[in-house]
UniProtKB/TrEMBL annotation:
Keywords: Repeat, WD repeat. WD repeats lie at residues 10-42, 54-88, 100-141. This is Repetative protein. SMART domains: WD40. It comes from the Bacteria.
Length: 628
């Protein structure tokens, strides 16, 4: 397993924050990150959070939990499939106490039992397991899900609640004789939190609502929160209110009766995790540190001081390669195979750009905050809020198509960015769109790859898990990348009745983890497929449509990155640009024998140190707080 190796970003993190966790006294805050580290901050003065200790895993860290019986003990859970237990002293000296035996998949969440001696771990393998932290012994399996188990919360009475992508909520007593009680929802549940009294369990639903449940899983109240999925919940210490982080990019504060108290929007915030202690709210970030707010008013107390520039999207703009980043910068690089790079940056927004598309001199960007931005070289225009992040864009027959986390295609006017039509396209987030002659391809978390126009689409094939990306070679071949650790590729044709069909579909093996991005090179009769994975590898296959066994044997690792790969783009000259979250940008082409080879290697961090031309910045304020 390769280890994350990212350059430092000041005293904070080098990549977005995945989790925040207050110690119960509010004096310490642990933040976890995609950079593979946990930082423990001194928050005695919440206006000046100060780093005390930095703890390291080999892969991204998903969660942490402070021990309820010993305030110096912290558990951390990682995609390296381990849970580590640390002792962090008053002066920040950190020592590793134990590492729980290697799990079979990424650990998404951890929680202590009230005795402070046992720890519950939940994993992407669907299991909830109980461990003794004194000696690292496995004690029992206390629950299981049919898909990824996303979060665990333990009540003051020792009841364990787990939720997962299978829509299951399970509550049980690991010391009791009976199995867990369950409640099933129609879609993924990613967050849950017991109130401090243990009387209520808040469950964050994929449809944007939060259910307040009894310990017996009866619904006390359903609270509509957002137009996009609710992701995380945290309770005030007196259980009178709770804070919800949602995929609309906002923090929502409600009283226990379901009345909205206030809402905080900041495009730098990544609200996949929230925490509350002593009247202070902490939230994750796409920048290098936590965001802290006053619980009562939503007023900002402290914010991170540095942007991270992980690349999320690529596009071609004339002879420039455009790179959309976590910081909201679009970096334009003009380069050939041997000449020096020249760089131009445009600050579209303060939050992540998830997708890019171009039409002549016009550049479109889809954002995590749920907007589409248009830059025509002079002025920047923003759509109204679309209600969900926009991870995919494509141009089709005079319309701009935006694929959203809500599973919709939104048809926008290319000029004013007005929404003309909303179409329920997939049963999950539309992760990727690719224009082809006569239509466009789409990939989604409902496991499908589809083709056609905005309506009446044809399913080309399905994966065993969500699909992260789809790519095309003209309108003759396509490939897709999935969390099931595979790439699929096939010949595609459009039938006389307008439907689309896939033939000679092959499954390509190689990556050991989720495959994030994909591209095709060469000729459709014998293409080369490139794919980037969370295993840090750039994989390549030579496709033989008549001999799938030969294709299977052809897979190899072309290059290794220092973090997962994020996006790819087939360029007009027959090469492919490949970006990793470590900031590395490769240009890959075919050698005279038709084999893929790296032609150019650049690094985004180094490019941003070159003399640059900076253009228009978004006019919207980065932070807004609105009363109910």
């Amino acid at each position: 397993m390769r280890t994350i190796d990212l350059p430092a970003c000041g005293p904070g993190h080098s990549a977005p924050l995945t989790h925040v966790g207050f110690r119960p006294d509010g004096q310490r805050l642990a933040t976890c990150s995609y950079d593979g580290t946990v930082i423990v901050w001194d928050t005695a003065d919440p206006s000046r959070p100060t780093p005390l200790a930095r703890l390291r895993h080999r892969r991204l860290v998903n969660a942490s939990a402070w021990n309820p019986a010993d305030p110096e003990v912290l558990a951390t859970a990682s995609a390296d499939k381990t849970v580590a237990v640390w002792r962090v002293g008053a002066r920040g000296r950190a020592t590793l106490h134990t590492v729980l035996a290697r799990h079979t998949d990424d650990i998404n969440s951890v929680a202590w039992l009230p005795d402070g001696e046992r720890l519950i771990c939940v994993s992407e393998d669907g299991r909830a397991t109980l461990w003794s932290t004194a000696d690292g012994r496995f004690l029992a399996e206390v629950g299981s899900h049919e898909a990824h188990c996303m979060m665990v919360s333990v009540s003051a009475q020792g009841l364990v609640a787990t939720v997962g992508e299978d829509g299951l909520v399970a509550v049980g007593d690991p010391d009791g004789p009976d199995g867990p009680r369950t409640r099933r929802y129609d879609s993924s549940i990613e967050g849950c939190a017991w109130s401090h009294s243990g009387r209520l369990l808040a469950v964050a639903r994929d449809d944007g609502a939060v259910d307040l449940l009894t310990a017996g899983l009866d619904v006390v109240r359903t609270v509509p929160v957002s137009t996009s999925a609710a992701r995380a919940v945290a309770w005030a210490e007196d259980d009178s209110s709770f804070v919800v982080g949602a995929y609309d990019g906002a923090l929502h504060h409600f009283d226990v009766a379901g009345a909205r108290l206030h809402r905080v929007e900041d495009r730098r915030v990544w609200p996949r995790s929230v925490a509350v202690a002593h009247g202070v709210v902490a939230a994750g970030s796409f920048w290098n540190g936590p965001h802290l707010y006053d619980l009562a008013t939503g007023r900002e107390i402290a914010a991170p001081d540095g942007a991270t520039h992980g690349p999320n999207a690529l596009a071609q703009h004339g002879d420039e390669l455009l790179i959309g980043t976590d910081s909201g910068l679009v970096v334009a690089v003009r380069t050939d195979a041997s000449g020096p790079a020249t760089v131009r940056t445009t600050a579209f927004t303060d939050g992540p750009i998830l997708s890019l598309a171009t039409d002549g001199d016009t550049v479109y960007a889809g954002t995590y905050s749920g907007h589409v931005l248009r830059h025509d070289g002079t002025a920047l225009t923003s759509s109204a809020g679309l209600g969900a992040p926009v991870p995919s864009l494509a141009l089709h027959e005079g319309s701009l198509v935006a694929g959203t986390y809500n599973g919709e295609f939104l048809l926008l006017t290319p000029g004013a960015l007005d929404v003309v039509e909303r179409i329920e396209a997939h049963d999950g987030s539309v992760k990727s769109l690719t224009a082809v002659a006569g239509g466009f391809l789409s990939a989604a978390t409902d496991r499908t790859v589809a083709a056609g126009g905005p309506h009446g689409r044809s399913t080309l094939w399905e994966h065993g898990n969500l699909v992260n990306a789809v790519a095309a070679l003209g309108a003759e071949a396509a490939a897709s990348a999935s969390r099931d650790h595979t790439v699929k590729t096939g010949r595609i044709t459009r039938l006389p009745d307008g439907a689309w069909r896939a033939e000679r579909v092959q499954t390509l093996l190689g990556p050991d983890e989720s495959v994030k991005c994909v591209a095709l090179l060469g000729d459709a009769e014998r293409p080369v497929v490139l794919a980037g994975s969370y295993d840090f590898g750039l994989h390549a296959w030579q496709v033989d449509w008549d001999d799938s066994a030969a294709t299977l044997a052809s897979g190899r690792v072309l290059a290794a990155f220092a973090q997962g790969l994020s996006c790819m783009l087939r360029l007009t000259d027959g090469t492919v640009a490949v970006a990793g979250w470590d900031g590395r940008i490769l240009v890959v082409g075919l050698d005279p024998a038709g084999r893929p080879a790296v032609r150019r290697s650049l690094h985004l961090g180094e490019l941003l140190t070159l003399p640059t031309t900076t253009t228009h910045r978004a006019g919207a304020r980065p932070t807004e707080s609105r009363a109910a």
